[in-house]
Amino acid sequence: MADLSPLRRRMIEDMTVRNLSPATQRSYISAVSKFSRYFGKSPDRLELEDVRAFQVHLVCISWPALNQIVCALRFFYGVTLGEALIPERIPYAREPRKLPVVLSADEVVQFLEAVSSLKSRAALTTAYAAGLRASEVAGLRIEDIDSARGVIQVRHGKGAKDRNVMLSPQLLGILRTYWRLARPRVYLFPGRDEDHPIDQTVLHAACRSAVKAAGLTKRVTLHTLRHSFATHLLENGTDIRIIQVLLGHNNLSSTARYTQVATDTIRATQSPLDRLSLEVTPPG
Questions:
Q1: Taking the domains of the chain in order of start, what are their residue ranges?
Q2: What whole-number distance in Å separates Cα of residue 205 and Cα of residue 47?
Q3: CATH number of 6-89
Q4: What pTM did the predictor assign?
Q5: Is residue 98 flagged as an active site residue?
Q6: One of 74, 133, 227, 232 is an active-site residue; which one?
Q7: pLDDT tens-digit series, residues 95-142
Q8: Catalytic annotation on 178?
Q9: What CATH class is the domain 105-267?
C-alpha cells in the first residue's frame, strides 16, 4: 500500500477493522474514487452539496448501484472523515416495489437440467436447495457439508454472519456423485486453481446459458433460485420466521415480501365472501 494516498489508506484500514468483505471494500473505494473524479478534487474537500449534485448525476442508474454508492459515501464521511452529522443527510434511493421473479417447481427442474457443466449444475442446484447467494455458493468448502448433522454451514454470509441451512438428502446424493467425479480438495466448487473458489461470474454465465437452453421467458438470474427457494418453502407451509433464519435476513420485513408471490398460499386463502350465505339474483 506504499503508493496509496494517506486518505485512501485510512479508509481501507477503517473498512478492514470493521471486517467489511474484500468485495465491499473494492466497491466503496471505487465509489469514492468516482465521486472524486467527477469534481476533480480530493473527496475530503467535497461537501454535502457536492454529494447531492453527484446523486442527481447518477439518478438514472439502478437503485442498488446508487445505494451502494450512498453506503460508500456515508461510510467515508461518517467513519473516515469523522463527520457524524453528514451521513444521515445523504439519502438512499427509494427501492422500487417490484415483486421478485419466481420459478415454478417444473421450471426449476427445466432450468437445472439445462445447465451443461457438472460443476455449475451442482453449484446451482445447491443455490436452490439451500437458498444461497452466489458468493455463499462459491465460498463453500467441503468441510461445510455436515452430512452427520444434516446441515450446510454458510460462512461469512452477508454482513459477515455465519448460519446453518438444511442439507437436503437429495442434494447430499447429488453432491456425493459430483465429488466422486470431480474430486475437489478444499473448496466444494473450486476455480481453475484448486486452492481458490470458483469465480462468481462463471456461475452467472452458466445461469444465463441455462435460461436460454431451457427456453425460459422469465428474467432469471442466480438470485431467482434464492427467491424460488423461499417462495416454495412458504407455499409448503414453512413458518416465515424459519425462512428468515435460513435466508439470513436481519428483518422479518425482508422475508415477508415472499408472501406476495406465494401464489399457492394466496390461492388457498379463503375470501371472507366464502363465509357468507349469499345468493345474488338478477334484479327482477
A1: 6-89, 105-267
A2: 40
A3: 1.10.150
A4: 0.68
A5: no
A6: 133
A7: 666 788 999 999 999 999 999 999 999 999 999 999 999 999 999 999
A8: no
A9: mainly alpha
